[in-house]
Amino acid sequence: LNEKYTIMIPGPGAGGPPARPLAMNLDLWHWRADALIKERRKDKVTLGVRILRHCISRDPLDPRAWLILANYEITAKNITGARWLLDEGVRNCRRSVDVHVAAGRFAQRFDKDYRKAVDLFKRASEIDPKATLPVLELANLQFNLRNYDSARRVLLGALQLDARHGRAYEMLGRLERERGQPAEAVRWFTEGTRVDSDNIALWQGLALAHEALGHVDEARDVMRQATSMPSFSNNSWLYQTWGSLESRHGDPVRAEQLFDRALKLDPTRGAAWHSWAKLCEQLGEYGRARMLYSHGVEAIPANQLLWLSWGELEASLGDNDKARSLYSSALSRNPRGPKSAQLWCSLGKLEGAVGNATRARECFATSRQVAYRAVDQALCTLAWAQFEAAMRNPPKARQLFEEALTAQRSLKSIWESYALFEELLGNVGRAIELRQRATSALRRDADSPANSLALQWLKTRGDTTVVDPQQEPIGTLLDQAGDFFRKLLTPPSAKPGGASGTTVNLMAGEMGPQQQQHQQQPFYPAVPLSPPQQVVRQRARQRRARRASREVRMMAEYVRTRSQQQTPTAQEKNTQSCSN
Known about the structure:
Radius of gyration: 28 Å
Keywords: Nucleus, Repeat, TPR repeat
CATH superfamily of the domain at 25-127: Tetratricopeptide repeat domain
CATH class of the domain at 25-127: Mainly Alpha
Shape: globular
CATH topology of the domain at 25-127: Serine Threonine Protein Phosphatase 5, Tetratricopeptide repeat
Organism: Vitrella brassicaformis
InterPro entries: HAT (IPR003107), HAT_Syf1_CNRKL1_C (IPR055430), Mbb1-like (IPR044624), TPR-like_helical_dom_sf (IPR011990), TPR_rpt (IPR019734)
Pfam families: HAT_Syf1_CNRKL1_C, TPR_19
GO molecular function: mRNA binding
CATH architecture of the domain at 25-127: Alpha Horseshoe
């Protein structure tokens, strides 16, 4: 090859180096280096990296070596090295769309430099105006930032470039579903399955959109049609999604069959292990749930969600030592994973519940440091503020509430928790002011399509049944351990002998008769329950009642102990009166 296929490569431009001979065997060298690195053996990887460096020295204008080396460094957790390689690749390969797109993804994911990512995607589009990849990446960035109008315009432009691009239809369907328009989502997903029937995400999105509309039978038909296709008949992702759908709509037997099918096809499908275990928890089969969590973490040790859910199960059953061990095991295996903030926060709540206040504060502080997104940091700060409120430390709690609002002002739960905290301290005027600030802040966010939740809340005004989708990254952060502080912070007006008959909780404001009547109306169209669904719902209500009664007993014991520790003696009272 070196003798027969040597060609002349032109220089970069006028005044640059002259044309130089280059052997055509670089294609073979790139292929060989990529294969060596994928073997994941130390000697093979070292040889592959040496070959790629040789390719860069022979032709720095070829983008393949830069991209392969950068991907290897990202896999090896060498973020600094990957950043340098991508920057050098952009500088040398100025006409490469792939290098610019890869650098934009890196800036978006690791550097959080969204302005740089947008600039790189736009430059990639200028290099090749007919390329759809940079356009879709730009739309995905706008979608993640909740700039839905901008993302929609970009996606419609991508469809003008390629009307048969399945990913554009899929992103448009997801966008409409996030904006609360499931009917529009069904239209886009249906059109996408017609032009690109091999895109599995389109079939899954279509089923979920039908479910959001309340058309459960249509969703089942979509999943049945997708799994009957030869290309998807052995796809564990579809079976896991179908099983989750059946578990949500009262057919646990069918759901378990589908989860079992998904795990036989792919034992490393963490979502299937998690969904199956959660189904067993709903049915009250805690032993089976433990077994599934155990098998799941054995198959996928780095899956933090399985460790977290297992720890929450043990904590809800009163085995705090086991829960602490599970949280610690998850953090030791993957200290910077996507659920690290939630793990540290749950560990802090656990330590606070057993009386280890110092350790709890350390865990809360660590959870804020490792939080991946601003909403994660805000919710961890909120949990810490609730803990300080429970420990009767108003100055620190007030400071943490303000920090949580600085991190994420569009979370209704932060505003309501802060307002109720001030109300407990007797600062009624301050509580009213906070609720007014919350209304104005959420209305400003509602004017922009970046926050559809705020718009929904302002439309329903007082409907506390609407769940904030931005709380999903933290999962059950405020569900189980948060109940501990919710009961402690119940204001006097919410008690049976209070001044008014309204009910107040930590996550919602006061509700009058009209608001209570509106709260009973379902947010989505009601779906009639089958007998298996009714059994599942009844067992879930019984479980919640048992858990609430257990937590009330724990709360009473905790408050009684704290009050005994803080009750002053007669001598202390005399000293205090003299000092006054």
